[in-house]
């Protein structure tokens, strides 16, 4: 089971034209046996919802789309989901937009109509990078324990990455500590030493930043729904933390 998860690279395709989207999904899955297309969206807003639910490894997106275009989607991914790799598949007329996207860590641009050879080349490159990152991360975790590690600064970086990937879930200091095979007190001690803030504060910042984004861009969501999407199941606790961090209640900030 573990091997299967490590080998599977999860992809979301974002394209507003049905025929192109469906064709791209089929071609991606046929080209690479290690790839699983877990979702397809017709605009950036729908894609962000899928990202939050399913945490993909890779996004293949068009630029010009209704509701939320590909450039805004890429900006959001770079800010809130930095580990997700991004590929643009768009027409020649959108090349200026694609160049702008490069500042948000987009490394690959596919020109429509996308050739099979170019699609396979770009996918293979990204899959290799994703699998290498996973292997490196697992290698780091294998040696982690508080008696033998020689570089606590690296451990802190891994803890930060883990929180960035999981902050939308219900997550406590004890759960994080168990994941890394530490005591909660030791985890707090090294985290504060190298970041000057406790892990609970960093986690809170991630969540409130995401909440501010949701309140600004998705005004149809209730305060309860926003809280749940950033890991706070108790609406009143979420509102209290939000005001503590921003000086506003979620309702006030939404206005």
Automatic annotation (TrEMBL):
Report the InterPro entries cross-referenced here: CheY-like_superfamily, Homeodomain-like_sf, HTH_AraC, HTH_AraC-typ_CS, Sig_transdc_resp-reg_receiver, Tscrpt_reg_AraC-type_HTH
Key word DNA-binding present in the record?
yes
* Transmembrane annotation, as ranges: none
Q: Which residues form a coiled coil?
A: none
Q: Which SMART domains match?
A: HTH_ARAC, REC
Please state every residue range assigned to the domain named Response regulatory: 10-127
- List UniProt keywords, sorted A-Z: DNA-binding, Phosphoprotein, Transcription, Transcription regulation
Specify the superkingdom.
Bacteria
Task: Tell me which residues bear 4-aspartylphosphate.
Answer: 62
Q: Name all HTH araC/xylS-type domain ranges.
A: 157-255
A Pfam family of this chain? Response_reg
Q: Which PANTHER family match?
A: ARAC-FAMILY TRANSCRIPTIONAL REGULATOR (PTHR43280), HTH-TYPE TRANSCRIPTIONAL ACTIVATOR RHAS (PTHR43280:SF28)
In Swiss-Prot or TrEMBL terms, this protein is called Response regulator
Provide the species name: Paenibacillus anseongense
């Amino acid at each position: 089971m573990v091997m299967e998860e490590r080998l599977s690279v999860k992809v979301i395709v974002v394209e507003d034209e049905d025929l192109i989207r469906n064709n791209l999904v089929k071609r991606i899955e046929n080209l690479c046996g290690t790839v699983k297309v877990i979702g397809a969206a017709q605009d950036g807003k729908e894609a962000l919802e899928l990202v939050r639910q399913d945490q993909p490894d890779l996004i293949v997106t068009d630029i010009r789309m209704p509701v939320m275009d590909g450039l805004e989607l890429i900006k959001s991914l770079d800010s809130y989901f930095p580990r997700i790799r991004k590929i643009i598949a768009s027409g020649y007329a959108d090349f200026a937009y694609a160049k702008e996207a490069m500042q948000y860590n987009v490394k690959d641009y596919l020109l429509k109509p996308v050739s099979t050879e170019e699609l396979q080349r770009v996918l293979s490159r990204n899959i290799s990078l994703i699998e290498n990152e996973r292997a490196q991360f697992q290698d780091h975790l294998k040696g982690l324990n508080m008696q033998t590690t020689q570089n606590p600064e690296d451990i802190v970086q891994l803890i930060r990455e883990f929180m960035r990937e999981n902050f939308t879930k219900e997550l406590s200091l004890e759960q994080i500590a168990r994941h890394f095979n530490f005591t909660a007190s030791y985890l707090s001690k090294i985290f504060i030493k190298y970041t000057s803030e406790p892990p609970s504060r960093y986690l809170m910042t991630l969540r409130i930043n995401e909440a501010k984004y949701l309140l600004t861009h998705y005004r149809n969501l209730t305060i309860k729904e926003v809280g749940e999407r950033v890991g706070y199941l108790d609406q009143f606790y979420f509102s209290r933390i939000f005001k503590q961090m921003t000086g506003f209640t979620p309702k006030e900030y939404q206005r």
